[in-house]
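INSTRUCTION: Work out how this chain folds

Token vocabulary: learned, describes local backbone geometry

RECORD BEGINS BELOW THIS LINE
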Amino acid sequence: MKIRSLRMIEIFLAASRAGSFHAAAREIGVTQTAITKSIRELENTLKVRLFERSVHGVKLTSFGTQFSRRAIQIEQQNAFLERELEEMVLGKAGCLRIGAGTVWSDVFLPMILANFSKSRSNVDFVIHRSVGSRFKSQLEEGEIDVGLGLEPSPEDLTSELVFDPITEIKTALMVRRDHPLCHCSNYELQDLVTFPWAMYRLDTIIFERARRVFLAQGFMLSEPSYLADSSASVMSFVANTDHVTLLPEPMLPLAERNGLTALKMADLPSFQSGAIYMAAAADYPLMQEFGHALKAFAAHTDVSRD
């Protein structure tokens, strides 16, 4: 049993992602006949059926799903190999594409990359504002090399995805400085239920976990009445209304400069945060160096509040 070429794997993955041979042919610029022939040859080589065919398209069989996991690893390893060789030929140190959640992109990464660049000034960085739920597809499609954010859910972690925890991030309840709750000497969860909420759209997972804390005490939080694609927009809005919001604690200095203050409240959710990447990237030298930089930063910085 021997797969003839990487091209067969490329065609297989294109078909599995597109959900039809016709769409896969259009995507990679070949005829549908060529797609069908390549898939049939691959199935004959492996002696298993990889796709269920129907008039609506194709979907992976159990064999196809298993093969897809390994095929993605091969695709990723090949891509990193090509990058390494190109960097050697051109004499470049490489480019690292990073998907980053709010705390990482706004607070941690500027410091980490500034220090990293002192010793590796010829490395390029491309930062994509993203969130944990998007990292898996971005990594598999080669859009990013590593994602920095909340720990993925167990169903998102597979044999080809690796999560390295870096730090635990606490959350803070934020309101404007002259908010009615600021004048209360003692407030409880039920007091918060009466106020509307504002949230950064990519951080709604924080709100959902806070909602579970309230539910456990018998209180129901309404949906945020203000959702924005910018954390700065949320902070500015909350600074001028009676809305309440949740922010990661490392963003407190920025929030305070924007006119917000933190309410002391126990039992707020905290999150494991770190780096998620394809297993195939583990041997990429630039990724290894960046991993060391992340761990060094966490070891020497109070990332929960700094």
